[in-house]
Amino acid sequence: MTPELSNFETDSPARQQYSAHNPIEQYVLLAKGAKGAACTELIKQVLEAPGVHVFGELLAMPNIEELQNGPHSNYYNTLNLFAYGTYRQYLENQTKLIQLSPAMQKKLQHLTVVSLAIKSKCIPYNELLDELDIKNVRVLEDLIIEAIYADVIHGKLDQKNKQLEVDYAIGRDIRKGDVKEIASTLQEWSDSCETILLCLETQINRANTEKQKRIKHKESIDQEIANLKKAIKTQAVESDEAMATDTCRDIVGGLDLRKKPAKSKSLKGSGPGKSVSK
């Protein structure tokens, strides 16, 4: 009996939430009870299902793996191609694969664009036309626009330079043999981050040291300015006091000079032979 999605019932709210974020999960659950021809129908459904772009979990199911050595191996091969391959590979190996429906073909072409975007963020139209087996640029641009609306990639069409500029692309399934290479790449990236971090820390320490030097230098200058202001103020006070003292002396000297002529006149009035007594 062919499994139908309408018969699929989730067993918990948590399962429903997980399935909403992982569309392949419902097909994985269905595959547990499918055998033979039922598995082939399930594969056709998942290859046409919108929003499903990763297939590794389904490929790992024992019931699905059994197909690769039986009369339905072409279904397994096609599912494997959607997980890891491209539309160009489909064209080159059609005898080992099932015939694609229009929905399947478009999905595989979208996945092919994703694979190209992983290698380069600027993909020439010529390369896209060849990989997708499209002869018309307008048809190519329509396909890319559909991929953008399907949230498979984010980017823009550079019609002047005839290329697709990719800002984001979804992830695809990873082969087990690629895990070591990915781990090595991530380790190199981690080492580069560590090197950059150490460099930044060195620069920060150097900047902090220079900042402390500048702060101390500024404090020294501020102290010198304060001392100079204090010295100038002291000199001004001393100068004012000296000027006040000189002014007082001048005033006192002036008074003495005015008194002396008066005394001389008194003496002049007392001539010789004149008595000053009564």
UniProtKB/TrEMBL annotation:
Compositional bias per record (Low complexity), positions renumbered to this chain: 267-278
Signal peptide (residue range): none
Organism expressing this protein natively: Anopheles merus (Mosquito)
Keyword Mitochondrion: no
Gene Ontology BP terms: COP9 signalosome assembly
GO cellular component, one term: cytoplasm
Organism taxonomic ancestry: Eukaryota, Metazoa, Ecdysozoa, Arthropoda, Hexapoda
Family according to the record: Belongs to the CSN7/EIF3M family. CSN7 subfamily.
Annotated PCI domain residues: 1-171
Subcellular location: Cytoplasm; Nucleus
Record's keyword annotation contains Cytoplasm: yes
Region described as Disordered: 259-278
UniProt entry keywords in alphabetical sequence: Cytoplasm, Nucleus, Signalosome
Protein name: PCI domain-containing protein
